[in-house]
Each structure stands twice: as structure tokens, then as C-alpha cells.
Design brief:
- The strands form five sheets. Strands 1, 2, 3, 4, 5, 6, 7, 8 and 9 form a nine-stranded mixed sheet that branches.
- By secondary structure, this protein is α+β, with helices and mostly antiparallel strands.
- A hairpin with a 6-residue loop joins strand 3 (118-124) and strand 4 (131-136).
- The chain contains 19 helices and 24 strands.
- It is globular.
Length: 616
């Protein structure tokens, strides 16, 4: 069967100059991918105009109506036709495309929207009358007088009516509305000093408010923390660590959640460069690398991080939607993220997410209410002396029961000075052990339940890592070096990180002709398939720009060693052993989660426990 070659034609191709309408529709295809893209461009214009209040109204997922109202500086009546011309902008003068301080700078958004929809702009500048202009499918009407108190109203109706084929690729109204909500929330996180309102007006009328964020006051971190609590939820704000670091002209700030507050997908990772929301592979890779030692592969960290720097250090003009950036020194940005996050996680010590306790309390259900109302009572909390007397009276009986049951009461220590009370320490004093696996400790305002095996496993793991960092990774020389054939490009990419690999005991050398020779492998891994490891490293280098394959395999071995060398489930521990474990957890960074990101302890506040039992 003979196939026609589409690249061969009997007619000589003729080069033609496209008209402005076609050019604008092509540009719209790059800038306006879906209704959310249009909302992004219009809201960014409002922020650039200095708005403090922005209202967004959409109907049918933005397909039939998008209206953005702001109180910014406005557009003069004489400038309205120019605003709808391609590459006309007030944000740059064209002399320096690297020194950009605004969201927009290309002057493509408004003419692109006018080319594929029905666009109306009504605006008023201070000291002048309001004016309006309309453009439909690229055809511009004359400027007309209008009524408006201040700012600008941009209304876009029937998006893609001029390019019906694009409508076939739109998703459901619900999916498009969700995409718009996500865009608005990202921009709201970047601008805590701006009030945002998102309203769904499908079906007419005032509609319903789907998102609202009032203007936040206070310093940078107070305002940002309050805005993140509003956008991402109170739980994120309660379990996030403040990040603030500077290195060689780059400043990183924001909030990153504890490892025990992790997600099943990378849906809670928000990155901003000079206030611009970005989805950058290098930055997300750095975030993943920072949590590499604390989360399993199926869990993902949550964070909202901001990088501020001189605009000349980053190129934002590398993507049609400006969603990707390119740093002049990407290694500097990546290193800043990894080191800052790891430092913050280490300073968090044994802290674990409060959502663990909330889930525990949520799993506790009271008995069904009786037919007759129970008598409401109030009990005074016993004094320390009364508690000690009760312990002394009860402990012999509990000691006898411990021979037959898995719950044991620890003999309480004698009364000491209040400043020496172990229960005043963060993880309290051990009071018992249940099922030979869980330590019950009393704190000043509640109780702590510790998984003894998971906690000790993390402690042993941290000691093994410290020893490896101090002494280095032992390498085993191969009797016969293994030769791995690669392409010239892969060989060059691999040799560029040869020094980093050698720190983990993997020694490679160039063997000529695109091949490399593996001379040493990490001794702790035993017998390894060198070729498979090299190919895995190359895949990571291609995908993320750096590789953690060797380190991951070594630390997986250390994790298994720690598991076998830790206190086993089912072992009865003495009171001094349990308290020693609690004190070591308090002194060891990252002890709040096991090697897979699961919590090693749960803390329950006394007020929550009393509420479970109906106490006032």
C-alpha cells in the first residue's frame, strides 16, 4: 500500500502575510488556553494598576461571562483604543526586557481576548470622565462615554465565539469554574494586601460568593499567615513552619508544613517568584528534595514559598503564559530552598502535626445518648497530692493485673519541685505502657501516646545518618570495572555530577566513545546492578536536573538497619527506659515522624479529653 507524503506537493508554497485578525487569534491560542487563563490576565492587570479591591464574576465556568472590577488607576479615554492594540503597554518601554517589575509586559492579553470573544472595557482615571470601548471578534467600536465611579471594569462575554473549534476542547462548567478558583486563590496568596471576591453568577442575579479574602493588615508574615489560613485552611496555618532566608541576592520566605501534614498528591504546593505564581519543575524538585528524608514516595509536602530577587536575576519571558521562569543561577535558587527548609524542619524538633490529634479525637465516638437525659455534673480536678495518693493506692492492684493483661501502670516518681516535674517537659512523664507498644505519658495540659517502635526507629536512623555524614560512605572497588554504553550527551550529563556521586561511594570514569566505567559502588548496598543504577540516575537528571538515586538507596538500607536495631513492638519497657526515650525524642530533630512520614506520637489536650466525657 502506498501512502501519500504530506510534505510533497505539486504546487509551489507561497508565503503570505496574515491579517491582524488571524494574528490576534493565533496569539489568543497561546495566551488564552481556557477561561481561567483569561481571568488570570485580567486580574494581573488589575493588580498592576494598583487595585486594593478586585471582584471577579463568572457564569457557566467563564464560558459566557467573565467580569473583573477593580479600584485601580484606570485607563484614560484616549488610551482605550491603544490598549486593544497588540504589543501596546504602559508597563515597559521596551529598552530592557529583563528588568520587569509587573505581572504583564507584552501587551497581548486584551487584544487576544477581543479577538476571540466580545470584550468591553469601561474605565475612569482620577479627574476625568469615564469612557467605554467594545471589541467583538477583533472588530473595534468607537470610544463612548460611560458611567463609573473609579477604576476599571472589564467584561468578556462568549469566550471563543469567534473560534468555535476551541469550544469543543472546553471541559465542564464545574471543571472550568474550579480552574478559575485555583487561579484566583494563587493570586490572592501572592497579594495579601488586596481584597478578592469571586462570585458565580450563572443563571443571572447576584449569584453566590465562592471565594472571599479580605485585605490583610500587619507585617509581611502576619498578613501572609492570615491569608494562607483563609486560602489553604486553618489546619495548614497551624502546622506550617515560617521560612525566611537570604543568599546572594535571593530571598526565600513563606510557610512550609510539617512532614506529618503531608498530602496524597502535589496539590498543596504553591511557588511564587517576585510575586508571580509559577509552576516550575526545578523549584518543585527542590521542594521535594528538601522533604526527601521525611516522606515516602507516595506522600507530598505542602508549602507556599516566595522567592524575591532583582528582576535581572530571573527571566520571566520564557513561557507564553509566564508560568515558568529561568534563573540566571538555578543552583543558587535550588540550594536556598533545600537548605532553608531542612533547617526549619530540624528546628521544629519533635513537633508533629496537630491534625493527627484531631483525627484521633474524631475517631472517638461517645456512647448513644440514653432515653432519659443524663445528669449534668461538674468535677473539680484533683490536686497533685491527691493524684499521688490515688496512684499509691491503685498501683499494687494494677501491678497484679499486669501479669495477665498488656496494660501496665508505671510507679509514679516521688513529689519533686515544680520546676523539676518531668510532666512539664514537652513530651511529659511516662505513666504507663499498653499492648507493649504504646507509651502513655502525662504532660502539663494533656497526655501523649508514643509508638515506641516508630519513635526509636527514627532515633536510631538519625544516629546512623550522623555517623555516615561524619565518616563518609565506604566504597567497594569492583574487581572488574563495569562498562556502561551511553550516548555522548548522557555521558557528559553523568560526568558533570561524578564528584557528587563519589561522595556516596559511586565512582565513575569516562571510558571514551560515550561509555563510562563504574569502578566503585557503595559498600552498604552489597552487590548492585551498576548499569540499572546508572540508568536510574540519568532518568532523574533528565527529569529533575539532579539525582538522589544513590543517596535514596543508601538511606533505605540505613532505614532497614534502624528498623531492626530499634525497640521492638511487644517489649515491656521500664519507667526509666520510657522516660529516656521521651527525653531523647525531645532532643532529636525530626523525631515527630517515622522514616516514612507517619507520626511517632499523638498529643491530646486535657480540654479535648474532658469534652469527650461531657465535662464542662
Amino acid at each position: 500500500m502506498v501512502y501519500a507524503n504530506p510534505n510533497i506537493s505539486d504546487n509551489q508554497p507561497v508565503i503570505r502575510q496574515l491579517d491582524d485578525a488571524a494574528i490576534n487569534r493565533i496569539a489568543a491560542g497561546e495566551v488564552v488556553e481556557r477561561p481561567a487563563s483569561a481571568v488570570k490576565e485580567l486580574v494581573e492587570n488589575a493588580i498592576d494598576a494598583g487595585a486594593t479591591r478586585i471582584a471577579i464574576e463568572v457564569a457557566d465556568g467563564g464560558k459566557t461571562l467573565i467580569r473583573v472590577t477593580d479600584d485601580g488607576c484606570g485607563i484614560a479615554a484616549g488610551d482605550l483604543p491603544l490598549a486593544l492594540s497588540r504589543h501596546a503597554t504602559s508597563k515597559i518601554d521596551g529598552s530592557d526586557l529583563l528588568n520587569i517589575h509587573t505581572f504583564g509586559f507584552r501587551g497581548e492579553a486584551l487584544p487576544s481576548l477581543g479577538a476571540v470573544g466580545r470584550l468591553t472595557i469601561t474605565s475612569r482615571v482620577s479627574g476625568a470622565d469615564a469612557a467605554s470601548i467594545q471589541v467583538s471578534g477583533g472588530k473595534m467600536d468607537a470610544v463612548k462615554p460611560a458611567a463609573l465611579r473609579a477604576g476599571t471594569v472589564v467584561e468578556l462575554r462568549d469566550l471563543f465565539y469567534a473560534t468555535p473549534a476551541r469550544l469543543k476542547f472546553m471541559r465542564t462548567d464545574r471543571a472550568e469554574a474550579q480552574a478559575i478558583s485555583d487561579i484566583v486563590k494563587r493570586l490572592a496568596m501572592a497579594e495579601p494586601s488586596v481584597a478578592f471576591t469571586l462570585r458565580d453568577v450563572s443563571g443571572g442575579g447576584e449569584g453566590r460568593v465562592t471565594f472571599r479574602a479580605d485585605r490583610e493588615n500587619g507585617d509581611l508574615f502576619d498578613a501572609l499567615h492570615a491569608r494562607l489560613a483563609r486560602v489553604l485552611g486553618r489546619e495548614f496555618a497551624e502546622n506550617a513552619l515560617q521560612i525566611d532566608a537570604t543568599r546572594e541576592g535571593l530571598r526565600l520566605y513563606g510557610y512550609a508544613a510539617l512532614p506529618t501534614y503531608s498530602r496524597g498528591a502535589a496539590v498543596a504546593q504553591y511557588l511564587f517568584v517576585n510575586g508571580r505564581p509559577v509552576r516550575d519543575k526545578m523549584l518543585t524538585g527542590a521542594l521535594r528534595a528538601a522533604y526527601f528524608d521525611f516522606l515516602s514516595r507516595d506522600r507530598h509536602p505542602a508549602a507556599a514559598l516566595f522567592i524575591d530577587c532583582d528582576p535581572t536575576l530571573v527571566d520571566v519571558n520564557v513561557h507564553p503564559a509566564k508560568s515558568e521562569v529561568r534563573f540566571r543561577d538555578p543552583g543558587l535558587a535550588r540550594g536556598l530552598i533545600v537548605s532553608s527548609l531542612r533547617h526549619a524542619l530540624a528546628e521544629a524538633g519533635h513537633r508533629a502535626s496537630s491534625t493527627v490529634a484531631n483525627a484521633t479525637l474524631g475517631a472517638m465516638r461517645p456512647e448513644p445518648a440514653p432515653a432519659t437525659p443524663a445528669r449534668v455534673y461538674q468535677m473539680d480536678r484533683p490536686s497533685p497530692a491527691a493524684r499521688q495518693a490515688a496512684y499509691r493506692a491503685q498501683s499494687p492492684g494494677f501491678a497484679e493485673l499486669s501479669q495477665d493483661y498488656s496494660g501496665r501502670i508505671v510507679e509514679p516518681v516521688p513529689e519533686t519541685a515544680p520546676e523539676d516535674e518531668p510532666q512539664d517537659l514537652p513530651l511529659g512523664a511516662a505513666r504507663g505502657q499498653v499492648h507493649e507498644n504504646y507509651i502513655i505519658a502525662q504532660t502539663a495540659d494533656g497526655m501523649v501516646i508514643v509508638d515506641q517502635h516508630a519513635a526509636h526507629e527514627r532515633l536510631v536512623y538519625e544516629k546512623l545518618k550522623a555517623q555516615m555524614a561524619e565518616n563518609g560512605v565506604a566504597a567497594q572497588a569492583l574487581l572488574i570495572p563495569e562498562i556502561v554504553e551511553l550516548t555522548d550527551g548522557d555521558c557528559a550529563r553523568l560526568m558533570a555530577v561524578a564528584e557528587d556521586l563519589s561522595r556516596f561511594g559511586l565512582t565513575i570514569e569516562s571510558f571514551g566513545g560515550g561509555a563510562i566505567a563504574v569502578r566503585e559502588t557503595p559498600a552498604i548496598l552489597g552487590e548492585v546492578d551498576a548499569r540499572a543504577m546508572i540508568l536510574d540516575i540519568l532518568d532523574e537528571l533528565a527529569d529533575q536536573g539532579e539525582s538522589q538515586t544513590v543517596q535514596a538507596r543508601i538511606e533505605a538500607i540505613l532505614s532497614r538497619v534502624a528498623c531492626h536495631g530499634s525497640v521492638r513492638s511487644g517489649r515491656r519497657m521500664r519507667a526509666e527506659e520510657m522516660n529516656a526515650l521521651l527525653r531523647e525524642m525531645e532532643a532529636t530533630p525530626h523525631s515527630g515522624q517515622c522514616n516514612h512520614g507517619r507520626p511517632t506520637y499523638v498529643e491530646l489536650k486535657l480540654s479535648d479529653i474532658e469534652r469527650l466525657f461531657g465535662r464542662s
